[in-house]
Amino acid sequence: MRISELSARAGVAIPTIKYYLREGMLHQGEQTAATRAEYDGTHLRRLRMIRALLEVGRLSVASIKKVIESVEDESLPTHEMLGTAHYALSPAVEPEPDEEWQAARADVDALVEELGWDVHSDAPTRDELAQTIVRMRQLGVSIDLAPYAEAARKLVAEVEMGTIPFDGPRDAAVEALVLGTVLYGRAFDALRRMAQESESARRMTR
Amino acid sequence: MRISELSARAGVAIPTIKYYLREGMLHQGEQTAATRAEYDGTHLRRLRMIRALLEVGRLSVASIKKVIESVEDESLPTHEMLGTAHYALSPAVEPEPDEEWQAARADVDALVEELGWDVHSDAPTRDELAQTIVRMRQLGVSIDLAPYAEAARKLVAEVEMGTIPFDGPRDAAVEALVLGTVLYGRAFDALRRMAQESESARRMTR
Lengths: 206, 206
What we know:
mainly alpha, homodimer
């Protein structure tokens, strides 16, 4: 297909496509004349992945480049490639040097161990959860995370993992991971607040 | 207690306390001398609630004033007072006039009906979920929300509702609702991404 068709089908403006080509984020098309190149499904798929990372994952162009590097490094196993995209979605959390932080981080590590989860010791999610626990302690919110962990595991294993095409093209898997992570996260958050309203109504009006 | 002690115990600077007093967000202390007023536990509780709304809930001062109005309106049942704080925490979503939106919103209404949940027909969470469904459809993400709804209901009913002191002071209940809603939401999000990493590792390395 011509660049105009690629643009229309991907929903990405032509100047933006040209920018991605210049930056090496999108592979060149097949040159069929001096001013004409032919693009195919692999270009469309890459553009969809970039859009998902940019618009839904809200990643910076610098982070997207890192994800693309790992997609293109075929020596990297799929799990680690997906890990790169996944870690890029995590908010950056700076560990703090105080005891309160260390205690919370130790609690996170103990929880992961107890759950038997296979989470890298450097995963940013460990610090992210530690930070939330510090905040809960400071504010006197009771902490009972086991039911949340179990609910998360169940939803991920029974629903979300089924939506990721592990055996298909690598950028399609990244796209599905990012869209699923962010959009199911938003849906759950809205549903949880609906459940709060409903349960509150039930308790108060009975 | 004096304003300096109130400041230290609430973790709110004296000029900020004076601002809240001027704006009517905090009730006046008991004047014990021309330049001295005495504050008590009700002031401390109100400051804690304001901090929770501001720092954890990220509400604007204008929204906080609305919540305070409903806390002070004793004729408002507790459930409706909490609803005001709760709705203020929802991201503002503008319904769109097109068919895609109408269809998604109708699906949300059908889901709530099917679940038998007691959620107001004007609740902002309905539009929020509709917007997420529109996005999922546009991006080709499969939609199976029933397991998410059930998990949300269970966590809210079995864990979160127990943390809200429905029978205590009204501002303590609002504080607990806001802290619980936001912080448990963050904790769940981190746990869900950990579960994704773990399940992905299990599938790919087996």
